[in-house]
Amino acid sequence: MKATRTTGAPRDTDREPTRTDRLLAALGGLLAAYVSLAVADLVASRVRPEAGPVLAIGDAVVDRTPAALKDWAIRTFGESDKTVLQLGILLLLALLALGIGLLALRHRRLGALAVAAFGVLGALAAVTRPDSDSALDAVPSLIGAAVGAVLLYALTGLLTTTPPKAGATRPDRRRFLIVAASTGLAATGAAALGRTVTSPVEENAVASRAAVRLPRPASPAPPVPAGAQLRVPGISPFVTPNRDFYRVDTALVVPKVDADRWRLRLHGTGVRGELTLTLRELMARRTVERDITLACVSNEVGGPYVGNARWLGIPLAELLREAGVRPPSEGGAADQLVARSVDGMTIGTPVEEIMDGRDALLAFGMNGEPLPFTHGFPVRMIVPGLYGYVSACKWIESIELTTFDAYDAYWVPRGWAAQAPVKTQSRIDTPRPFGRPATGTVMVAGVAWAQHRGIRRVEVRIDEGPWQDARLAAEDSRDTWRQWTYPWTATPGRHTLTVRATDGTGATQPERRTTTMPDGAQGWHSVVVTVEGA
């Protein structure tokens, strides 16, 4: 009798799995992945939250995502874009886990090795993060994967059979379900514990922020003019509360930096001698307080990613001049300042704009309190008149002077412009789109901004009628937005309300809308409303 040859990896069973076996095996793969992530997150809570596999892999995905896709995610999901990304990663892992479970039904060792491989991938993603400074960041993924691999190997062992000499044993499905259920419950407990446990790094950061006592500004901001805040329901407040201030960045988890350990390094072309400063040393310098409006380049026409706050910090230009830096207009060799965040983000800012007399700050206070963690504690950059992606580095830890020819900051290779002054914009806050106001006088109101140029005029148009001047609120400074209002005598029917603004130089917003890439959206904002009859 002629012997037959088998090919491929050795199977752990010669019995053909039933549909129930396959279903349970897929469930086992999913459970192994769940347990791996739960254990990894629990370990990460004691090491560093950013070392968790989902966050580490998520950051790697963010760094490799095309700029257009990122911009779409921000437009579509707003500040929930990071949550959507993490859910997408979890969904992909779940699908892979189902496949690994089916693989393990045929080849237990290969299934376990596949789980271990994902652990290695998570570990590599964690230790290669820009903010990783310890090999311990690999530990959560490795421990989680080890537990998951052992579990999958054990579970599939209850489903596979190896025929003994005197016949075959049957799969122990009842024991499989008992082990799966008890392990799932234990993993859920571990996940819940991981959410409640605070890492020592985070505890120290929170304590350091609580201990910060902001200095009294040597140059306080002037009082906000009494007429800067209009009393119109629905209009954006002149000063945006910290909790409502927009947040757009690439950090899946907000960096929590220990202010006592934080250092700022100043170095590069034209710097007389490298400087390293502590937060205490920064706050001991001459401090200034200014009202400044920030805007994100991802803000669509009429979008929400703009806010105004009172910032406290030190003049960045003074620090640069003390270090020997001169702007290009004075013969300086560096034309770009590259700010680097603790999470590896780099932001390039023109040196000329920083040193032209505007209130460019290294800020550590926001609306009377230390910077919130979400907005850059302990220190961030603020440069009026420039979009945030070229000026507003949060969690800053390094300032390097260089040139635009020598270095491209994070967003430039991804399709965004290297330099991006804020474009003149205006927005209708009330009535809301598709609102149904009653006939009679309706207050159309909103905000307009053109930081470092100021707003000279705002006009409103009803349908295709003539442009009418809106009433401007008092101006705080040319670096802040300005409220406006227009009393409209509303008549029944469907109407389109449109707004446009003219900046301090006399330039009026163009009508044609453009997208946010490569240097910010522009165009007129309009809303459609239906006026109810009497």
Please give a handful of descriptors for the protein shown.
534 residues, alpha+beta, 21% strand, disordered N terminus
Mean of all residue-level pLDDT scores: 90
Gyration radius, in Å: 29 Å
The number of E-state strands comes to: 18
Low-confidence stretches: 1-8, 162-168
Morphology call:
globular
Helices and strands, in order, run as: HHHHHHHHEEHEEHEEHEEEEEEEEEEEE
Q: Report the helical percentage.
A: 25-40%
Give the assembly state of these chains.
single chain
What can you tell me about this protein's structure?
- The protein has 534 residues and is α+β, with helices and mostly antiparallel strands.
- The protein contains eleven helices and 18 strands.
- Helix 1 packs antiparallel against helix 6.
- The radius of gyration is 29 Å and the shape is globular.
- The N and C termini lie far apart (98 Å).
Short note summarizing the structure:
This protein has helices at residues 19-47, 53-64, 67-77, 81-106, 108-127, 139-157, 173-196, 200-210, 279-283, 316-322, 351-354, and strands spanning 264-268, 275-277, 288-295, 306-315, 336-341, 346-350, 361-366, 369-370, 380-382, 396-402, 425-430, 440-449, 455-462, 468-469, 471-472, 482-490, 493-503, 525-531. By secondary structure, it is an alpha+beta fold. The N and C termini lie far apart (98 Å).
Please write out the topology.
Elements (H helix, E strand, L loop, with lengths): L18 H29 L5 H12 L2 H11 L3 H26 L1 H20 L11 H19 L15 H24 L3 H11 L53 E5 L6 E3 L1 H5 L4 E8 L10 E10 H7 L13 E6 L4 E5 H4 L6 E6 L2 E2 L9 E3 L13 E7 L22 E6 L9 E10 L5 E8 L5 E2 L1 E2 L9 E9 L2 E11 L21 E7 L3
Parallel strand pairs: 1-10
Antiparallel strand pairs: 1-2, 3-4, 4-7, 5-6, 5-10, 7-8, 7-9, 11-12, 12-16, 13-14, 13-17, 15-16, 17-18
Helix pairs in contact: 1-4, 1-6, 1-7, 2-4, 2-5, 4-5, 5-6
